[in-house]
Amino acid sequence: MKKDTKLAEECKVKGNEAMKRGLYKTANKHYTDALDHKRGLMTLYTNRALARLKLEMWQDAVDDCTRVLEYCEVFDDGYEKQKDLCYKALTRRAQAVRGLKEFELGIKDLEMALKLLP
Length: 118
Known about the structure:
By secondary structure, the protein is an all-alpha fold. The chain has a single domain, classed as Serine Threonine Protein Phosphatase 5, Tetratricopeptide repeat, CATH 1.25.40. It is built from six helices and no strands. α1 (about 5-20) runs parallel beside α3 and α2 packs antiparallel against α3 (about 40-55).
């Protein structure tokens, strides 16, 4: 395992522990630190999006989820290869756009999530 990947995983574990304890700002920081080491770990974005939802950082959560979905569209030819990851991204983005009062967008994301994992 490369040094950057190892450091990213360590930060991710710290972020997960902080989330369990309800320390959302700390979790957000750890996930961001992990992404500084390894941008390609898509689960870090959905984890950070969850922390950002708890912090009511709606647009930042939308951006994290959108990044995951765009990555899957381009590199995985859609959402099917990583259903669980894309499901999390869609449902979390729906929560975030609800916070932004963009209800129609949230409904579209939830409908897509339901198609992925009925």
